[in-house]
Amino acid sequence: MFSSIKSGIKSLLYPLYEVRLARSLDLAKTPHHVGVILDGNRRWAKANPSIDGDTSSRRGHKAGADKIIELLDWCEETNVKVVTLWLLSNDNLKRSPEELKALIEIIGSTVDELGRRGRWEIRPVGSLESLPEELQDRLAAVSTKSRGIKGVVVNVAIGYGGRREIVDAVKSLITEAGKAGKSPAEIANEISVEELSQYLYTAGQPDPELVIRTSGEQRLGGFLLWQSAHSEFYFCEAYWPDFRKVDFLRALRSYSLRERRLGA
């Protein structure tokens, strides 16, 4: 009885707190690029069984996918320009065939829905050649259709791994230089941070100033290894499907209050 009353009071107060928090933010200090590790879908499903007792990972992944639209709404409201969403890692491709098939279907439907909204430019990033051909085609179609839309740029990291990205960047740099007839010594001489950055999946975009990870895990797990060298990190206890606007605003507030020395 007492817990239900307490829960009811919280549900009434949170909208007021959310408005107060939003008003306190200095949008001039909003990060231009926010990376989000959407973690905790499976644990959420186990902790929140449906009425019929469903605790399947599929249900968790679907709940997590439904949260993405809300996040992008919040990003628009707070002037975030680029969002990178880690939807599927290279390691995830090793999961059981049943779970992987369900996850691929959900990701495909989610990206299709983002494209149908017509509000954001969708850019798939990752080792896309490792994905099922049907998903590759769907990603390519959404990317082409949404290109040039004046809204938040949404990088959907699928089949993504930070180490693999750096390896791919080095391979691409060497291949291009080889085509230009350069010797190994010349290639090694010309490699620089700036040069290699041009071959990353996110080439041409600002590096993320803020990286958010849900579910209480305090590690990057290989997310944007190169790009996050100077990022601020925010770890949230909530599982991704439970991530609220209040949690997002808290992350932005935390970022705005930090003194970014950038190595100085």
Automatic annotation (TrEMBL):
Keywords: Transferase. One of its GO terms (molecular function) is Z-farnesyl diphosphate synthase activity. InterPro entries: UPP_synth-like, UPP_synth-like_sf. CDD domains: Cis_IPPS. Gene3D superfamilies: Decaprenyl diphosphate synthase-like. One of its GO terms (biological process) is polyprenol biosynthetic process. HAMAP family: ISPT. PANTHER family: DEHYDRODOLICHYL DIPHOSPHATE SYNTHASE COMPLEX SUBUNIT DHDDS (PTHR10291:SF43), DEHYDRODOLICHYL DIPHOSPHATE SYNTHASE FAMILY MEMBER (PTHR10291). This is Unannotated protein. The lineage of its organism: unclassified sequences, metagenomes, ecological metagenomes.
